[in-house]
Amino acid sequence: MRLLLVEDDLALQSNLKQHLLAANYTVDTADDGEIGLFQGKEYNYDAAIIDVGLPKLDGIALITELRALTIEFPILILTARDSWQDKVEGLDAGADDYLTKPFHPEELVARLKALIRRSAGKASPVINNGPFSLNTSSLELTKNGELISLSGSEYKLLEYFMLHIGEVKSKTVLTEHIYDQDFDLDSNVIEVFIRRLRKKLDADNQLGLIETLRGQGYRLTKLASLNQPDKPS
């Protein structure tokens, strides 16, 4: 998952970025609202964290402009102002949630995960697909209850697929949501990680878990539930 973090307090920005990286997110940062607006328009994000008190373009105005451009990724606002009016302004501008400083980074990460899940239509932190269960809180994958070890990059790719089961995703989209701005879009890293996931999750291709659609991209197949109800006799 790729995040936009717009925070002018560089010490806080650095601290939050480290916690988000540790939680397996890719993070782009901006120091003021104008840079944040440019990045929000230019890149595909899964969520944004925006401080209210930004220079050049404040957080409320930034959110208003993003929403006016029909940019719909979830937005979490940060505010040092302990005033209900500021929270209401942010939510009315189009933010989805808020945190008042000071806060624990762990709470920020938990709220982000919930926002991203809800935007994908998932309420639970555990996403199931056939024999697979992905726990987005513990960052663990199981198949029929057995834990499967994934690298950080493999997990990022699979989590994005699991949040978008049945949807075709191009190599460019996958790259933009998993890697930072400087990543080489022409590299074959996505193909490498797709092969690794297939080998770990569906080595004999019995499930047809990850489909390749020539000229379009890849799709995670929606698999039948493990607990199918008995058919009436």
Automatic annotation (TrEMBL):
Q: Does the keyword Zinc apply?
A: no
Q: Which InterPro entries match?
A: CheY-like_superfamily (IPR011006), OmpR/PhoB-type_DNA-bd (IPR001867), Sig_transdc_resp-reg_C-effctor (IPR016032), Sig_transdc_resp-reg_receiver (IPR001789), WalR-like (IPR039420), WH-like_DNA-bd_sf (IPR036388)
Q: Which residues carry this modification: 4-aspartylphosphate?
A: D51
Q: Name one GO molecular function term.
A: phosphorelay response regulator activity
Give the CC-aspect GO terms: cytosol; protein-DNA complex
Q: Write out the entry's keywords from A to Z.
A: DNA-binding, Phosphoprotein, Transcription, Transcription regulation, Two-component regulatory system
Q: Which CDD domains match?
A: REC_OmpR_EcPhoP-like, trans_reg_C
Where do the Response regulatory domain residues begin and end? Answer: 2-116
Name of one Pfam family that matches = Trans_reg_C
Please state every residue range assigned to the domain named OmpR/PhoB-type: 124-222
DNA-binding region listed in the record: 124-222
- Tell me the domain of life: Bacteria
Biological processes per GO annotation: regulation of DNA-templated transcription
**Where does this protein have coiled-coil stretches?**
none
Q: What is this protein called?
A: DNA-binding response regulator
Q: Organism classification, top ranks?
A: Bacteria, Pseudomonadati, Pseudomonadota, Gammaproteobacteria, Alteromonadales
